[in-house]
Write a structure and sequence with these properties.
With about 260 residues, the protein is α/β, with parallel strands linked by helices. It has a single domain, classed as Aldolase class I (TIM Barrel), CATH 3.20.20.70. The chain is built from ten helices and eight strands. It has an eight-stranded parallel sheet. Strand 6, helix 8 and strand 7 form a beta-alpha-beta unit. Helix 1 packs parallel to helix 2. The longest helix is centred in the last third of the chain and has 18 residues. The radius of gyration is 17 Å and the shape is globular.
Length: about 260
């Protein structure tokens, strides 16, 4: 049986200067050498550092991405970044619909869908974030809530596993109650129902389904063993290179065990 590579990556959010981001990328490149067997690594720096990080990682086994992009190719959208501009700066992945953007910047299911369409149109990989609040989790509505978010994000799109169309997309399940500095560390049984549902509904139609939220080197192996988890989208535990490298080593061991 052939297993798809794991995706393991991190977003720096609004952290790190250009110099700090490039120093991280330079050391990461040096440490990774020819890559991590069975793992696709990615880094999403702040937009100010995207071009320089992409150059620092050129030819390395690490993809770079951007934390947000507009659905229009250009125009009077002050303060925004288009997908062509992101691609020009080296991005291959575009993060879309993170709960922080939904909560604080009026991101909706509708704008997420527009952005997914733009990213696919330009040949990049959309990384679509989804997740439920603590209140939804407590009343047992996680699966329904997350499936509805993902269905809205991909409405009208079609595709099969592969590199074309929707098959290039990634889903990152990030329960709101588990992310951020004060997030609660998840138990595998907390996230298993959503991942099993996502895998059943979307596993053969997208490029991967990742878990994110309070991921650490200590719990990464247990999370990767949850059925339906095809990788990890990590926050602060990967903001220093050694932490990210340790997570990649966990991914390598898991991929080897599954081979």
């Amino acid at each position: 049986m052939t297993h798809r590579p794991l995706w393991i990556g991190t977003s720096f959010k609004m952290n790190k200067t250009r110099a700090q981001s490039v120093a991280y990328a330079t050391r990461l490149r040096s440490e990774l050498g020819g890559g991590v067997p069975g793992v696709r690594a990615f880094v999403i720096p702040p937009a100010t550092a995207l071009a320089e990080v992409s150059l620092a990682l050129e030819g390395a086994p690490v993809r770079t991405g951007v934390q947000n992009a507009h659905w229009a190719d250009g125009g009077a959208w002050t303060g925004e970044l288009s997908v062509p501009q992101a691609a020009d700066a080296g991005a291959r992945i575009v993060e879309i619909g993170h709960s922080e953007r939904r909560a604080h910047f009026a991101e909706t299911d509708g704008t997420v869908r527009l952005k997914v369409g733009a990213v696919l149109r330009h040949g990049l990989t959309p990384l679509v974030c989804c997740g439920e609040s603590a209140e939804v989790f407590a009343r047992g509505g996680s699966v329904e809530h997350v499936l509805r978010q993902v269905e809205a994000a991909f409405a009208g799109l079609s595709g099969t596993r592969g590199d074309e169309g929707l098959g290039r997309a990634l889903i990152a399940y990030e329960p709101v109650w588990a992310i951020g500095e004060h997030g609660r560390e998840p138990r595998p049984e907390d996230v298993a129902p959503v991942h099993e549902a996502l895998a059943a509904e979307w596993g053969d139609r997208v490029g991967g389904v990742l878990y994110g939220g309070s991921v650490t080197p200590g719990n990464a192996a247990d999370l990767l063993r949850v059925p339906g988890v095809g990788g990890l989208f990590v926050g602060r535990a990967a903001w220093d290179v050694e932490g990210f490298l340790e997570l990649l080593r966990v991914g390598r061991r898991h991929a080897g065990a599954m081979a």
